[in-house]
Structure formats: structure tokens, C-alpha cells
Structure prediction request, 151 residues.
Amino acid sequence: MLLGLIALFVVAQLVPYGRAHANPTVQARPKWDSPQTEALFTRACADCHSHATVWPSYSNVAPVSWLMQRHVDEDRSRFDVNVPGYGRDADEAAKEVGAGSMPPAPAPHRPPERSGEGAARGGPGGDLRWGTRGWRIRGPLSRTGPRRKVS
Prediction:
């Protein structure tokens, strides 16, 4: 039984999907209202919703590599700050952040330091909001009041 699991793990490493981690070329860059807003997005969202994904070393080991690659591919197809128009579901992404369902909680393929847990949900870093009018931050990081908008 154990030998069979080890053999399956070794064979899984031969599947090429999930290990080609070249980030696509940046086609667009968002305008940020402050460096803090950009830092909050980078910490909480960029690994899945930009072309600046930081791939941890374990992302080269199947089956975690498969999960991570699928997750990033799906998320970029829905909302990606580095493509013109930000993706097909950019408005829905803004609603998910507003509802508190984004960023997701840590998972085996998403370590706590990169998951943004609480960072974009009104936690100590403030509240990141995105919509068709641009990026804004509300909360402790906002310098000029409760809301700032980026045009």
C-alpha cells in the first residue's frame, strides 16, 4: 500500500502541468491612489490576480502544483489587473471583496502570509475596494478621509 502511494507520487511528478511558472507580459497597469493601496493589493491579491505571481518552491511538486496553476489560471481569467479592462468578471470581483469573500482564507496551496487574511476585509491594513471607477482604499491607510478614489 505505502509503496503504491510512493510510486503514484513519483509518477505524478512526470505530469508537466503546473510547473511552467513564467508570468505573462504585463499589458496594463492600474493607477493606485497611494503606495499603501498598491501594497495592500500586492499582499492580498496579486498572486492570483496579476502577472506578478510569486510561486513558492512547493508549487513545483504535484499535486499541489496542479492546484496552484489551476487556481491562478482561473482567477486571472476572471480578474487580472495587468490586462486591459481588468478581465471579464472585474465587477464581480469588486462585489466579492466588498462582501468579504475575497481574499480567501489560507489553504494548503495559499500560505497565510500571502492570503491577505483580513488585509482587504477592513483589518488593520484598511479596506481595499475596486470598481469600474478604479481602486480606492477606505480605513486606516486612507490619508485624506474615509474614501479615496483613483481615476
Notes: The helical segments are 2-12, 35-44, 46-49, 64-78, 90-99, 112-115. Residues 73 and 128 are 23 Å apart (CA to CA).
